[in-house]
Design a protein that fits this description.
Layout (H helix, E strand, L loop, with lengths): L2 H16 L4 H10 L7 H34 L4 H20 L15 H4 L2 H14 L8 H13 L2 H22 L6 H12 L1 H28 L2 E6 L2 E6 L2 E5 L5 E5 L2 E5 L2 E6 L2 E6 L2 E6 L5 E6 L3 E6 L3 E6 L6 E6 L10 E5 L5 E2 L3 E3 L2 E7 L4 E7 L5 E7 L3 E8 L2 E8 L2 E8 L7 E7 L4 E7 L3 E8 L4 E8 L15
Antiparallel strand pairs: 1-25, 2-3, 3-4, 4-5, 6-7, 7-8, 8-9, 10-11, 11-12, 12-13, 14-16, 15-16, 16-17, 17-18, 19-20, 20-21, 21-22, 23-24, 24-25
Helix pairs in contact: 1-7, 1-8, 1-10, 3-6, 3-7, 3-8, 4-7, 4-10, 6-8, 7-8
Length: 483
């Protein structure tokens, strides 16, 4: 979980918790408590068990739908993060001043539900309504702010996270106090909530602090999604410490190191470990990265995508009948090992250009049914899918240290995504672009920057861009911008 996601979850949980101070929160504790019905403690526990998932569902519905709407209308990007940071800062200031909540929702929960249906079912529906956030009194500006932030960021997975955290904050005080309703502990807690305004004021101050922290995190993230053109006309980047390789529009390869350009004797260059690998005719040449002296060759007719590390060379062979991904050991580049097939597709599926980090191989596999990102430790016999989608295209991953970067394409928009290699979910977007303005294609990851190419229009003209990452603990030093 990133710093932005963590602060979003904390702010949403705090906003949900503060919402318990509404009349609906008080009445809900009494309604599902033992004194609110004749079913005893067993019915109360059943109602609590159904109220919690109801509140979670309500939160996901509200914030998840707002995030999906934002994704459809504008997507994520630098402006979105900046707008979200501004909303959080304004809301924090209003909470700090204790301003009157506006606009205010002056509605109560339907009281007759508890008489017309079993209490666990009514509690579940009450939970959904409270989790929705805007069906009853709003007790903090955080609710309105988080709704706007969810829409501004336009990231459905972030909306779901917000909804779950908000629903949990809404539900826990009710679920925790309801079993004690009518008992000394429950009575004292309810009296404190109802008769001590400073307690509510304290929680609003807590919301202000969380929203201020969120504004800072979003403001920092907004600078991470700024992209700049590094190589006009460049495409298919490959990076290593102090080196950047790419392909020019005419297919020729170039290498940038120590601030200077070097033309390479081939195409589709890849850099990694002590090597530069490139395609020359029906062969792959292995060059010394520092002297560019030829160290060895590998026969590979049809190879069109390369990755290289200190001990391995991986390449894709494309054809009408499908793609084949091959790996070969190069501990001795003058005498490479035997080629081993890693993956193969039929004519309706594609394999991306591979990526290598030491012996870890990562690639994407796209078919008409699903899109997957797969990793494999070379030398082993098993591949593992680390990300899968039936509704979005997942393209051209690159691995570096503990993170991967890849392109996620859906609803006419491409997003450059970064996530932890062993994490869950899609990760977070650092750059977004409508496909009508150009498609994001290949990518390469360093410790502090992501390099990626953007194909413009039908002409296929490409530019090589970079975007800065924050909070790097691993990886390489930043490659200086080309002159």
């Amino acid at each position: 979980m990133s710093a932005v996601e963590l602060t979003l979850a904390l702010a949403a949980f705090g906003a949900g918790w503060t919402g318990t101070w509404s009349p609906c929160g008080f009445s809900m504790i009494e309604t599902i408590g033992p004194t609110g019905h004749r079913g005893g403690m067993r019915t109360t526990l059943a109602a609590c068990a159904s109220f919690l998932p109801g509140a979670l569902l309500g939160g996901v519905i509200t914030f998840g739908q707002l995030a999906m709407l934002g994704a459809l209308l504008h997507g994520s990007g630098r402006i979105a993060y900046g707008a979200a940071a501004l909303v959080a800062a304004v809301a924090a200031l209003l909470e700090l001043r204790g301003a009157r909540i506006f606009p205010q929702v002056r509605r109560q929960l339907p009281e007759d539900w508890r008489r017309r249906m079993p209490l666990p079912l009514a509690a579940a529906l009450y939970g959904v309504l409270l989790g929705l956030g805007f069906t009853t009194f709003v007790l903090t500006f955080g609710v309105w702010a988080l709704a706007a932030i969810s829409f501004a960021l336009g990231q459905p997975h972030t909306g779901v996270l917000l909804g779950l955290a908000f629903g949990l904050g809404r539900a826990l005080p009710v679920v925790g106090l309801a079993p004690f309703a009518g008992r000394p502990l429950g009575i004292r807690a309810t009296m404190l909530m109802a008769e001590r305004p400073w307690l509510y004021r304290g929680f609003r101050l807590g919301d202000a602090a969380l929203l201020a922290l969120l504004a800072a995190a979003l403001g920092t993230a907004s600078s991470a999604v700024a992209a700049k053109v590094e190589i006009p006309g460049g495409a298919d980047p490959s990076v290593a410490p102090h080196a950047l390789a790419w392909q020019a529009p005419d297919g020729s390869g170039f290498l940038l190191r120590d601030g200077g350009y070097t033309s390479l004797p081939g195409r589709q260059p890849a850099v990694g470990g002590p090597y530069v690998a490139l395609v020359a005719g029906d062969e792959i040449k292995l060059l010394d990265r520092y002297s560019l002296a030829e160290l060895g060759t590998v026969s590979a007719p049809g190879a069109d995508g390369l990755a290289v590390s200190a001990r391995w060379l991986a390449y894709r062979i494309g054809g009408r009948s499908g793609d084949t991904l091959v790996a070969i050991g190069i501990a001795d580049p003058a005498n490479p090992g035997f080629a081993k097939r890693i993956a193969r597709t039929g004519g309706f599926a594609q394999i991306s250009r591979p990526s290598l980090d030491h012996s870890l191989l990562v690639f994407s596999r796209n078919s008409q049914y699903a899109s997957r990102i797969v990793k494999r430790r070379l030398g082993s016999r098993r591949s593992r899918t680390i990300l899968r989608s039936r509704f979005a295209g997942l393209f051209n991953p690159d691995v570096g240290g503990r993170r991967i970067v890849y392109v996620r394409s859906s609803r006419g928009r491409d997003r450059l995504m970064v996530r932890r290699l062993r994490g869950r979910g899609a990760g977070h977007a650092i750059y977004s672009r409508r496909r009508s303005r150009g498609a994001i294609w290949s990518s390469a990851l360093t410790g502090r920057r992501v390099f990626f190419s953007v194909l413009k229009g039908r002409s296929g003209q490409a530019n090589l861009l970079s975007a800065r990452l924050h909070h790097s603990r691993h990886g390489h030093r930043r490659i200086e911008r080309s002159p």
